[in-house]
Please model this.
Amino acid sequence: MNLTDYVKKVSQEDFNKPFLHQAHWNTRLRTTGGRFFPADGHLDFNPKIYQAFGCEVFRKIVRHELCHYHLYYEHKGFRHRDKEFKELLAQVDGLRYAPRLNSENHAYFYECQSCHKVYSRKRRINTLKYVCGSCRGQLILKNQS
Model:
């Protein structure tokens, strides 16, 4: 799919206005579905959102970014807090917030030998140096995922 052509199509169908700039995939986006850059007018989109949630949710994210885009070039309130932005977003049925991607990948699980409390960590810890925060018992590595 050519992203710029898709954004132009959504802009014409949902806003009846042309999209005159470029749209790019940005794999470095983590918590957001897309970004609008007022300096040069281009849009960035998170490909992980498209892969995880499909075309319907992605189209709503494109609408959200196009709300920023069109309001900015009409010299109206294009920020999230502005009334014009909220009204236009509701009109075109865009998403207010991007859905969360499951980025919680804890690799190490430690269990206290005394109280059996389980700790999940992304990094390995030194079990000779660190102890359970609840009872000060010794921690052991349970498994790696």
In short: Helices lie at 3-15, 47-73, 83-92. The longest strand covers residues 139-144. The mean pLDDT is 92.
